[in-house]
């Protein structure tokens, strides 16, 4: 008796599974036009005239060993191998542990130079918060130069200067050189 039930179940259960699966394909729901994939509202002619990339990212290591990551909201090619970008963020990490995060509204990448402009904000891992109108980073030498007036919050107070340059000295330590009308407001 038991073997007869098992024999019938071996035939009926696969047929029932086949019937259930066939209803999935033979009786589908009608598509909902509101649930369709939305298409982007883009002006194709404007994109062809002005090509650009969104959220590009560049990463590399400078000759002095510092790791650099550069991201932007949007980048456009310019003449030659140069490029212009908006809303940049640059992360700079030296081998000795010193780190800096830089943000700027505008920037350009040239052969061996990253130019940030429009009010560059720099925050370092050792407690400095700087604002400078333009900042140029030479990727070959690792030197950062800021022009146009610097305002900084340092661990010891506030600092103002016309120009800044961050480089390495002969011992390999990072040196921030401020020049041109340097003022210090010491806050113990």
Give the secondary structure arrangement, pairings included.
Layout: H1 2-26, H2 44-49, E1 53-54, E2 57-61, E3 67-77, E4 83-93, E5 99-109, E6 113-124, E7 129-138, E8 143-154, E9 157-168, E10 174-179, E11 183-186
How would you portray this structure in words?
This protein has helices at residues 2-26, 44-49; strands at 53-54, 57-61, 67-77, 83-93, 99-109, 113-124, 129-138, 143-154, 157-168, 174-179, 183-186. The longest helix is centred in the first third of the chain and has 25 residues, at 2-26. The protein has 188 residues and is of the alpha+beta class.
Summarize this structure briefly.
The protein is of the alpha+beta class and 188 residues long. The chain has helices spanning 2-26, 44-49; strands at 53-54, 57-61, 67-77, 83-93, 99-109, 113-124, 129-138, 143-154, 157-168, 174-179, 183-186.
């Amino acid at each position: 008796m038991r073997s007869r039930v098992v024999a019938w179940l071996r035939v009926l259960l696969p047929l029932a599974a086949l019937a259930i699966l066939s209803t999935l394909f033979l009786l589908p729901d009608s598509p909902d036009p509101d649930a369709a994939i939305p298409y982007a509202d883009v002006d194709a002619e404007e994109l062809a005239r002005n090509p650009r990339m969104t959220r590009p990212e560049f990463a590399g290591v400078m000759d002095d060993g510092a790791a650099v990551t550069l991201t932007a909201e949007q980048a456009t090619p310019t003449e030659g191998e140069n490029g212009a970008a908006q809303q940049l963020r640059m992360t700079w990490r030296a081998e000795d542990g010193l780190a800096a995060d830089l943000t700027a509204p505008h920037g350009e990448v040239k052969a061996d130079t990253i130019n940030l402009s429009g009010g560059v904000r720099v925050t370092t891992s050792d407690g400095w918060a700087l604002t400078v109108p333009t900042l140029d980073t030479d990727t070959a030498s690792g030197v950062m130069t800021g022009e146009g007036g610097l305002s900084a919050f340092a661990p010891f107070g506030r600092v103002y200067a016309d120009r800044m340059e961050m480089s390495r000295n002969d011992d390999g330590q990072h040196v921030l050189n401020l020049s041109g009308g340097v003022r210090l407001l010491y806050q113990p």
